[in-house]
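Q: Give me a backbone?
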Amino acid sequence: MNWKRFGGAGKITAKTAGENRGNGRGEYRRRARRGFGWLVVLATFCWWPLTLQAQDTAAVAATNTIAGTPAQQVAALQLELTNAWQQVIRIVNQPVRAFARSENTPASVYSPGWFHEGASIPDFNTVDVRKTQELTYAGQEYVTSDLNPTMVFLGQELEFNSMTKLFYVNRSLPKHRLNEAEMLEINRLYRIIGHCQSEILRLQPPPEAETAVASPDDTNGAPPAPTGLVGNIQRIPREKRILYGGMAIGVLIVVVVAGRVLKGRAG
C-alpha cells in the first residue's frame, strides 16, 4: 500500500476542508458586507426625509426673515410707492418764474384757465414722458391766463404733458418745462410705481364680496374631501408624510436584509 499516496491524499483532504471553512467565512463576510450596505441604504432613507424637512423649515424661515408676511410686504410696497409718487409731484410742480404784467406787455391769454378738467392715468410700466411733452407755449414770449391776468410767464419755460397731468397740484399756474434728466427720472419713478401697484394687487387677498362661498347643498361646487384611510393620509402635513414614508421604506429594507441573512445562515 502506498502510504505516501494516502498521506498525500490525507493532506489534500485536510487542505480542502480548510479551504471549505475559509470559503464559508468568506461567504459570511460577503453577506455581512451586503447587510452593512443595506444598513447604509436604510440610514440614507431615514436621513433623507429629515433633511428635506429641515430644508423646508429653513427656507420658510429665510422667506419670513427677508420678505416678511404678505401684510408686511404690502406695507413696504405701499411706502415705496408713496415715496416715488411724492418725488414725481415734486419734479412736476417745480415753481415757475412769474412777472408782473404792465399795460404795455403783450401776452397770449389762455382761457378757461391753463388746463382742462381731469387727467389720464399713465401706464406706469411703459410710458415715456419725453414723447408726450408738449411745448405749446414756446411760440410766445409771454403768456398768461384768465386765472392770473396781472401776471405773465415766459413761454419758453413752460410745458404741458398729458402723462404728468395726473400729478399737477395747483392748476391755476402753468407748469415748469422739464429737461431730459428730469423726464428720465420720472420714467424711473413711474416704473417703481407700476411695479409696486402690480405686487400689491398680487399680494392682497380679493375683497370679501368677491369671495365665492359654496352652500352646503351646492352640487356644482368642489368634490367632497376624501374620507377613510386616504382622507387621513391627506390630512397629515406634507413634511410628516415624507418622514413617515422614509421610515416605512427603511423598516421594509431591514426586514428584507434580516430575512436574507437568516436564510444564508440556514443554508
